[in-house]
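G., the chain you wanted modeled:
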Amino acid sequence: MKRTAEKTAAIALAAVFALSLTACTVQNNDKDYVERLTDATFQNGFGVSGLTSGNVSHTWWQYRNTVSDQPIWSLNQFCDLSTTRFRKNDDGTDAWRYDSTKNDLTLPTLFDEGYGIEGKDGDYETLTNRSGSKFASVNRSTGELNLNVDTSKEYLNEAGEISPRVNGEDWVHLIIEQSAGGVKIAEQSEIWVEIDFNLTKTNVIDTTGGASQFQWIFSVRDMDSVVGDYFWFNITLYDDRYPEFPGGGQFDSGKEDATGKYIYSVPGKNIFDGPVEGGKDYRVRLNIRPILEQAFDDAKSKGALEQSEFSSMALNSLNIGWEVTHVAEMGVKISHLSLKTKA
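Predicted structure as tokens:
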């Protein structure tokens, strides 16, 4: 879809307010804005997903049974390599099959003893698995959250050696998720995402198989669609392949449970002044309202959302965290999250 240079420039100028701690930040009059995130400091714990995205059941990370309120956030840990990594006997029985339970963070229920390992490290509540491939920790007094992934402990073969994933296999996710409230985009004049973070680990071991991406992703749904049509809106905060993430659009693919929906990714130049590096503090303040409209137009121009109108599109859900398709150790500390809107 064609756009005038003036409109494109206006969109870019309105959207870009993401700076490191050394730069100035945007000051909003809070009384004019509505906070859309619930439990942004993770006081209520997490519902922990299973290893497959199609499994909707969750167990509860209650910080060693110190939480009684229902969790708002989910902690999703998708990747089950037992479906693709196995060896058969001549009679069709398994001679070997990948043991995914060692990577599982799920916690005990009345019916299952669970696999995740809870602990306490100073002020942090911790959760990890037997392999050590995934680790999460929460400081309930400050609201800080750590999400660490080590896929060298997950992408393994029968001999226990590192074996990078191939196309069509699951990849490691460690993401937090909650509803975005069905906020109609066209009814808002501003939609601000805020995140403060520090990449605590950025060690790439083998680039075969893809990349490490730390992202904030929205599903943007047509609320009037009979089939519930939607697209993905990605804010890529780190991608180890690029000093400056190029952005753009594509359709979701690469594994059996891919959604096939359109993905619009915000260019890195709209978010940062330069490369994102490990060990540095970053403060992102980004008005995504104009970029969401641009993303909708882009999706339509590529053949997605054929029956949809922008007036029907709403923020449906959001997730934040790691997707790591190659062999790497990645970590992030998140110290602030917010999603604010202004009518």
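The radius of gyration is 20 Å.

Shout if anything looks off.
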